[in-house]
UniProtKB/TrEMBL annotation:
Transmembrane segments: none
InterPro entries per record: AIG2-like, AIG2-like_dom, GGCT-like, GGCT-like_sf
Species in which this protein is naturally found: Ascobolus immersus RN42
Taxonomic lineage from the root: Eukaryota, Fungi, Dikarya, Ascomycota, Pezizomycotina
Biased composition (Polar residues): 15-25
Sequence similarity: Belongs to the gamma-glutamylcyclotransferase family.
Biased composition annotated in UniProt, kind: Basic and acidic residues: 28-56
Keywords annotated in UniProt: Transferase
Name of the molecule in the record: Putative gamma-glutamylcyclotransferase
Record has Transferase as a keyword: yes
Region described as Disordered: 1-56
Top-rank lineage group of the source organism: Eukaryota
């Protein structure tokens, strides 16, 4: 759309600029919980919201990560990886359904995210695997999980269009005091999406993980 010139204005058309996304509004829910370990820095430029395209240089041959909590949402994964959850459309196709057997997902007391712990042989966690593309994405996943978790090697069953197979993957296992966990409280992704995601987006607006 071209805006007509007013009298005495210089010649030449003036075009409307693209509307910029507004800062998300917090809901009436409480502030995000359990994120004090994150080193948040201002994301000042557009370049800082784009991934570092250096190819992943992990020494391990394992290229998959099993995610079972907030990282199952493209908005969260996009923010961790690029510094902006507005890039979430680029991450929607990164997920493959997967199941981890022998481990249990429980809630963390006073936090919005869950923990993965060793369980009984019959315990199962339904989640997804993702495949970080760049070395910066591996670094940021480690930063996001922080000292609360340790990255270990597991085997998961993935579902690719109805065909199931076992693959090796990393998972972030809880590495703190078990007294911090609510063992009988199952964590719900849908509950987080409906009641907490908006508050996380408000907290992360204009910020990125520092490293």
């Amino acid at each position: 759309m071209t805006i007509p010139r007013k009298e005495n204005e210089q010649a030449g058309p003036v075009t409307e600029s693209t509307p910029q996304p507004s800062q998300p509004v917090k809901t009436e829910a409480s502030d995000p919980k359990g994120l004090g370990h994150l080193d948040l820095k201002p994301a000042e430029t557009e370049a800082e919201t784009k991934p570092d395209t250096a190819k992943a240089s992990e020494p391990e041959k394992i290229t998959a990560v099993f995610v079972y909590g907030t990282l199952q949402l493209p908005e969260v994964l996009a923010w961790v990886s690029t510094g902006s959850y507005l890039n979430h459309p680029d991450f929607k196709d990164r997920y493959t359904k997967a199941t981890l057997t022998g481990y249990k997902r429980v809630s963390v007391e006073g936090a919005d995210y869950p923990a993965c712990i060793v369980g009984e042989p019959t315990d199962k966690i339904d989640g997804h695997v993702i495949y970080p593309k760049y070395s910066s994405e591996w670094k940021k996943l480690d930063l996001f999980e922080g000292k609360l978790y340790k990255r270990i090697e597991v085997e998961v069953e993935i579902d690719e269009g109805g065909a199931k197979k076992m693959i090796k993957a990393f998972v972030y296992l809880w590495d703190q005091d078990m007294d911090m966990l609510e063992m009988d409280q199952e964590w719900s992704l849908e509950d987080f999406r409906e009641n907490k995601l908006a508050d996380w987006k408000a907290l992360f607006w204009g910020k990125k993980l520092g490293y």
